[in-house]
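Folded chain entry —
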Amino acid sequence: MRVPSVFVYIFVAVVIIVSGCAAPPVYYPPVPAERPEYYSAKDYFDGGVRNYRKGEYREALEDFDKAIQLKPDYVEAYYYMGLTHERIGKLNDAERAYIDSIRYDNRYLPSREALGLLLYDRNMFKDAEMQLGVAKSLGSTMPQVFYTLGQINMRENECRKGMAYLKEALRLDPSYPEARIALEDAEEHCQPKAAKPAKTVHPRQEKTFKGGGRAIDPENF
């Protein structure tokens, strides 16, 4: 039996209406990752290092602070706290963190290096030289340490020491452009000045009397 066309039209219209009223797809925003559960100072320290390397400095400082609360003599946590403060421009806080690190371990090389370089950048040259000198005695192989010591000595016209430090920086890193330029400047500054030639002194000649006129007869006196 043939279905009347009117019923076909009604059926199609119902399908279209139902399809148009279908609910749009629902968007579910991604769920933020939950902060891992930390239990020990080491957990917080490791989390802080991860955040520091990702550039999440506020979170890193929170983690290092928690690590230090659980372990007040956590030397590495103070050091990384100093690095993080430097990254966000809090230089006084960075200096205190490095000093605290050294207070608990005065042979901790990374803090000596970092503190010395920070003090140099802040124009505290004598204190910087002391810290970097200790870093050198502890076996530092950081080219920046020797470059900075070279610059400090050149400021004081200590040519021999300054050039030796700059050469050591280049030995450790032959592609260190600042050290190469500084060494070239030092060599030019420190080379002995050419002595000026002495003036030729001619012997003084006494003027002689070249006589003239009539000779005097002694019998006339």
User: Anything to note?
Assistant: The chain is about 60% helix and 0% strand.
